[in-house]
Design goal:
The protein has 755 residues and is an alpha/beta fold. 22% of the residues lie in helices and 18% in strands. Among the domains are: 466-497; 498-602, Phosphorylase Kinase, domain 1 (2-Layer Sandwich), CATH 3.30.200.20; 609-753, Transferase(Phosphotransferase) domain 1 (Transferase(Phosphotransferase), domain 1, Orthogonal Bundle), CATH 1.10.510. The strands form seven sheets. It has a 17-stranded parallel sheet, with no helix packed on it. A six-stranded parallel sheet has the order 24-26-28-30-32-33, with no helix packed on it. A five-stranded antiparallel sheet has the order 34-35-36-38-37. This is Protein kinase domain-containing protein.
Length: 755
């Protein structure tokens, strides 16, 4: 019996009469012998998919003349596809996806005329997509992406025309690849059996030809992430069997045609980030099979149709970043299966409908950046599955309902920048939230951790006494005199000496936070004990501090022996004064004297990215890593927008550093790793692997745990590394900005999740 791990014993290949070599889904490593088919000449089936094989595909493979199945998917094979593979006249199925193969698609493969499946996904194949594939007339499934295949400019996408000879073709995937050209009208002449057509991320331009409507058996059509223009063709209504229609991230424009509502089997409609405008067709509510409706980041206007409430089985609805107006319809409460509802970035007004309480499967609700008013409904507590709630940047008033404490799964809450008042609840998951969740609501009160004023004790009796007269009328006058004197002294000292400048500036920067003394910091950090040390930077150290009032904070101590530390302290004080962003650590207070400077920051109990990447018992999956990097990018985007032009931060330098961090996050290799010696840098390492074998540099633990779909993972990794390389261009002017980084990573994450 063959072991399920390790290398195969040589004796396995001594069974010359072996017909089927079938060992998929194991952890077998090593390489297949180059003379495999001299040793096992009778082979009809070879299936070693989803293992750890390395090396080249055996060059003797064409000598297994009876071979019908070659399945080598999801390994680490390198090198080229054997040039004589077409000598296998009995060959029917070829699975080579999820490897690190290079070179071109061999011409001889056209001689294997019985091939019905040719699957080459997620490799590093180059050259053009050959027209001779059209000679495989029995072909049923052809998957060519993601690879690095290109197109002959003079021929356009003529290979699609050649594939019209394959009358049994049911699945065709050509993206992502670096193709350029116009989608030919002949696409409508592809097999009447075609059910799956995916050309995502192929740089296709021009309009979607009306002939696309001839593909009447299509179930999936993916044309997203291209340069397509023009309107959605009216002939789209002929695709009566279509279940997934993805045209996102293109330049298509015009109205959403009403005849799209005739596609009654539609389950996924993704038109995100295009140039569509006008109103949302009310007839979309008739598409009761819809599970995902993505219309965000367009220029849609008018109201949210109440008919969308008829989509009782919809799971994901995204109408964010449009120009929708009016109240949210009460019918929204009828979408009882929905788990993600994103309506942010519009101009919705009025009250939040009470019917929203019916959405008991809802996990994520985002209503931020609208003009909603009135109270937060008490009935939000009925949405028992809620994990993320964003109501920020509206005109909501009243109190934060204490009933929200019942939402036991609520991990993210943002009600910032509204007109809320009263006490912040302190039960349930509220103890886990930070001040950023509530900032911009001047009338809120509550616990010190939220950086709001303390609530009045309702049990205290109020009396109009001499004490009250003193507090209300006399004390403010005295305070004004003291402030005026302080400013005068500050100005005088600024002229004569800069020694204590930041002490005074700091008291003005943080008027609502008591300054913390050196002695308090010394006690909180246990005399700067090594046990309290949680981070090292280029200009100082970061300690965990526990203060006398129980507050836990991070204390960033600047190394004043470095000139850069003075500038950094000043820059951080200036920048942090007005920073309002949920992904940036909040400054609580500071300590500054001629010999010591420190910032007291919000403490992050979950540790840092380095611990999660490099600690043996910690693990972040692909989605978590993308999510973290989106948050980092969003914070940098905010800083660049707010402070880049003032010279407080350097956007292009930050972009480069971010690109290196993005590489580190998915390769689990530090820029200082021993691997990078001489002229080999992390950037060069990734760049060279990107064009050959991107999966070979990805964190092995990541792929081992996410091996269900190597095609999608390989595509995801390629796109992420492309973003990282765009960030680290040698010329600062050629680097992408952080807004584009956020957008591209968000789309990659949506695609990876299958939204």
């Amino acid at each position: 019996m063959v072991s399920t791990a390790g290398e195969l014993p040589r004796t396995v290949f001594n069974i010359s009469s072996l017909v089927s070599f079938d060992i998929p889904n194991n952890e077998i490593a090593g390489s297949l012998p180059a003379d495999l088919c001299y040793l096992l000449p009778m082979l009809e089936h070879i299936n070693v998919g989803i293992n750890q094989f390395t090396g080249e595909i055996p060059s003797s493979l064409p000598h297994c003349e009876s071979l019908q199945l070659i399945a080598l998917s999801a390994n680490k094979f390198t090198g080229i596809i054997p040039k004589d593979i077409g000598n296998l006249s009995m060959l029917e199925k070829v699975y080579l996806g999820g490897n690190q193969l290079t070179g071109t698609i061999p011409h001889s493969i056209s001689n294997s005329s019985k091939i019905i499946i040719l699957d080459l996904f997620s490799n590093m194949l180059t050259g053009t997509i050959p027209t001779f594939l059209g000679e495989l007339t029995f072909l049923q499934r052809l998957i060519l992406g993601p690879n690095l295949l290109t197109n002959e400019p003079s021929l356009g996408l003529s290979f699609l025309t050649s594939l019209t000879n394959c009358r049994s073709l049911s699945q065709l995937g050509i993206g992502p690849n670096r193709l350029d050209g116009v989608l030919p009208n002949s696409v409508g002449n592809l097999s009447a059996s075609l059910e799956f057509l995916d050309a995502t991320g192929c740089h296709i331009n021009g309009v979607i030809p009306s002939e696309i409507g001839n593909l009447s058996n299509l179930v999936t059509l993916g044309l997203g992430e291209n340069d397509l223009t023009g309107p959605i063709p009216k002939t789209i209504e002929k695709l009566q069997k279509i279940q997934r229609l993805q045209l996102y991230d293109t330049e298509i424009h015009g109205l959403i045609p009403d005849n799209i509502c005739k596609l009654t089997n539609l389950g996924v409609l993704n038109l995100m980030n295009t140039k569509l405008y006008g109103s949302i067709p009310s007839c979309l509510g008739n598409l009761t099979s819809l599970r995902t409706l993505q219309l965000g980041s367009n220029a849609l206007t008018s109201n949210m149709p109440s008919t969308l409430g008829s989509l009782k089985d919809i799971l994901y609805l995204n109408l964010s970043s449009n120009f929708l107006i009016g109240p949210l319809p009460q019918e929204i409460g009828s979408m009882k299966s929905i788990v993600q509802l994103q309506l942010s970035g519009n101009q919705f007004s009025g009250y939040i409908p009470t019917s929203i309480r019916e959405l008991q499967n809802l996990i994520e609700l985002s209503l931020s950046r609208n003009r909603l008013q009135g109270p937060i409904p008490e009935s939000f507590a009925d949405m028992v599955s809620l994990e993320s709630l964003d109501l920020s940047l509206n005109n909501l008033s009243g109190t934060i309902p204490k009933s929200l404490e019942k939402l036991l799964h609520l991990g993210y809450l943002n009600v910032s920048f509204n007109e809320l008042s009263g006490e912040i609840p302190n039960g349930g998951t509220f103890n886990n939230f930070t001040a950023g969740s509530f900032i911009g609501n001047e009338e809120l009160c509550g616990a010190p951790q939220f950086h709001v004023k303390a609530c009045k004790d309702p049990n205290k009796r109020t009396r109009f006494s001499k004490t009250k007269i003193f507090l209300v009328y006399i004390l403010p006058s005295i305070a004004l005199i003291i402030i005026a004197a302080a400013i005068a002294i500050w100005l005088l000292r600024r002229r004569t000496s800069n020694t204590h400048l930041l002490v005074w500036e700091n008291s003005l920067l943080y008027p609502f936070n008591k300054r913390i003394s050196y002695h308090e910091i010394l006690q909180a950090t246990n005399n700067f004990s090594e046990d309290n040390l949680i981070g090292r930077g280029s200009i100082g150290l970061v300690y965990k501090g526990i203060f006398y009032n129980g507050m836990v904070a991070a204390v960033k101590v600047f190394n004043l022996q470095l000139q850069a530390a003075f500038k950094s302290f000043e820059a951080e004080c200036e920048a942090m004064r007005n920073i309002r962003h949920r992904n940036l650590v909040k400054v609580i207070s500071s300590c500054s004297n001629p010999d010591f400077r420190a910032l007291v920051l919000e403490y992050m109990p979950n540790g840092n990215l380095e611990n999660w990447l490099y600690t043996q018992d910690c693990f972040l999956d692909i989605d978590q890593r993308i999510g973290i990097m989106i948050d980092v990018a969003a914070a940098l985007e905010y800083l660049h927008d707010e402070y880049g032009t003032a010279g407080i931060v350097t956007p292009m330098g930050d972009v480069y550093s971010y690109g290196i961090l993005l590489m580190e996050t998915f390769t689990r290799k530090k820029p200082t790793d021993d691997l990078f010696v001489g002229e080999l840098t992390m950037k060069k390492w990734v760049s060279e692997s990107f064009s050959q074998a991107v999966l070979s540099i990805v964190d092995a633990n990541l792929l081992a745990r996410e091996e269900e779909d190597f095609s999608e993972n390989g595509s995801c990794m390629s796109m992420i590394m492309e973003v990282a390389l765009n960030c680290t261009e040698d010329s600062p002017d050629e680097r992408i900005n952080m807004r584009d980084v956020v957008g591209r990573l968000t789309k990659i994450r949506q695609r990876f999740k299958g939204l």
